Amino acid sequence: MTSTPRRTPPSAPAARLIAPLLAAVFAIGVTFFITYRIFGGETLDAVMQAINDRQTEANDFAAILFINALVGISVALFIVQLRRIALRVTITVVVALIFGFIMTTVFNLDSANRYIRGEFRVSVVTEAEVIEDEAADMEYGQARGDDFNRQGVLNPISEAAYTFAGRQGDLINVLAYAANRRSEVDLQVELIAPDGTSIGASNFATDEQVEQFDDLQSVNDAIIQGITLPADGLYTIHVRPQDLQTGTILSEALTNTRGAYEAFLLGAISRVNRWAVWIQDALTLILVGLAISIVFRARQFSLGAEGQLYFGALVSGVIALSGGALPGWIIIPVALVAAMTAGFLWGLLPGILKAYLNANELVSTLMLNTIAVRFYELVLTFQLQPPEAGYTASSDYPLSGQLPVLVANTQVTIAVFIVIIAVIAVWLLITRTPLGYEIRTAGSNLKFANYGGINTKRTIMLSLAVSGIVAGLAGAHLGMGIHRMLILNISLGLAFEGVVVALLARNNPLVIPFTGLLYAYLRSGAQFMERDANISFEIVRIIQAVIILLITAEALLAFVQSRRKLTTPAEPSTPTTTMESPRLIIESSAGEKKNV
């Protein structure tokens, strides 16, 4: 008697539609939110007026909306492709941001120190006649001061005392105030009579007193008003900053951290020019991430995208500089194809070394990166740099050699369409071509690929070479789209950051646009956080690292769990009276599964 295996009931149609519907809602919401923010983010009428003004001045609102829609589509692809994993990644990012907020608050605990640090002045305001006394530090109407708790000083001043000669019956006002608008020191002052007794003290000034006395800067200053001196002699003015309370320290730290995080999370979409910085950076990161995902799918840990990027930028730059007389519809395609070819050939070299000489691809690509960068610098310095240039750079590309701009006064160019084509092409390559099937099979199990008749040497070689095509495009985008000239350090390590983009996307070409946009958003947010909130860039780097580590740790945990499932013995199944032969499921190049 043969037992009938139980079938898992198919999921309900409504359940299958949850992810696409959720993705569509998020895509529309993200598109609307970004557009709303970059045009003011205030009332709807104000936003519509800003859009009308932009349309009148530059006539590029349709391009901005189109790009924002692409951002929304990348979010939708992230949800549809990763599904439950997307939720875990989102939660991980939120947790990392919360951790970063706490850490930034700790770093901001010294924010309140501005209330105990800064230049100050002390003066005695009176209508009484000035008394001259050589033993006194100051006279009526004279101001004295110093700098409290100055940074970098071996013995900073934390309190000060000044003396003046007074006469019985004189009516005076004692002022202690910040020396200028830049100083926010919060002062307290005390007046000591000749016999050593205190005859007045204050730690604030009212709004009315600030208006009455020109020297007072704010209510943080201190004033002792309307004191009648009890005797003749030397009076002493003691002045020092107020002691910081725990509540003040925490309040200032939280206030500064909120401002910093607002710049970090919303700075990139606060206006169009900042939004453009994010988008143009994301385009390069997406291309590099795509290039690296190809070799990672073949389980080759290649870091050669940096050198391929440099050669792509160099070759496309030479063509753009030398073809100024030709129209752009000829120069631009030729330069892009040349950049792709240069990246392909430079990627082919480590592929050959790996496939036929078994050279370690990590070492070979790192060494070849150095050669590519130095060769780039050599040609730029001695061949392309104009004699009259004051720094190492080529001449500006002619207009025919620059990628046409989509958004006025920015570097957001037709590279948007190049990236769309690259994403679709890499996805088709990996999932719908024989080479992609060979890359996936070799990456899953090299021995099985050899046993199945796949020429693994050829596959490894081509995976590194084909990735160079996309990396060369990234170099062309840097030269022809962003800088519009060749400069030193044109990449600044973008290729290595592309490794993070590929890993975050699980090497899925359809998810890489989202991770590239996310990582570029963090990078641009770091710039605006440092610029707007005066937060050190190193702190932002730490926040970025925490987010990336937690996300990659999520991927690592999933990998470990999958390995445990493979190594854990399966539970014995219900015995049957007949035996079935084992089956091997083989996936064909067309994506079909066959039972053998």
Class based on secondary structure composition and strand pairing: alpha+beta
How many β-strand runs?
10
Tell me the major beta sheet. Answer: 4 strands, antiparallel
Integer average pLDDT? 87
Which consecutive residue ranges, at least 5 long each, have pLDDT under 50?
Answer: 573-596
How would you characterize the overall build of this protein?
With 596 residues, this protein is an alpha+beta fold. Among the domains are: 117-243, Sandwich (Jelly Rolls), CATH 2.60.120; 278-510, no CATH class. The chain has 17 helices and ten strands. A hairpin with a 5-residue loop joins strand 5 (187-192) and strand 6 (198-202). Helix 4 packs across helix 6 (246-266), helix 7 (272-297) packs antiparallel against helix 14 (456-483) and helix 9 (328-357) packs antiparallel against helix 10 (361-384). The longest helix is centred in the last third of the chain and has 31 residues, at 537-567. The radius of gyration is 34 Å and the shape is elongated. Residues 573-596 have low confidence and may be disordered.
Q: Could you give a short description of this structure?
A:
The protein contains 17 helices and ten strands. With 596 residues, the protein is an alpha+beta fold.
What are the key terms here?
596 residues; alpha+beta; Jelly Rolls; four-stranded antiparallel beta sheet; 10 strands; disordered C terminus
Layout: helices, strands, pairs:
Elements: H1 13-38, H2 44-57, H3 61-82, H4 84-107, E1 118-126, E2 143-148, E3 160-166, E4 171-178, E5 187-192, E6 198-202, H5 207-212, E7 222-228, E8 233-241, H6 246-266, H7 272-297, H8 305-322, H9 328-357, H10 361-384, H11 415-432, H12 434-444, H13 446-451, H14 456-483, H15 494-504, H16 512-533, H17 537-567, E9 585-587, E10 593-595
Antiparallel strand pairs: 1-2, 1-4, 3-8, 4-7, 5-6, 5-8, 9-10
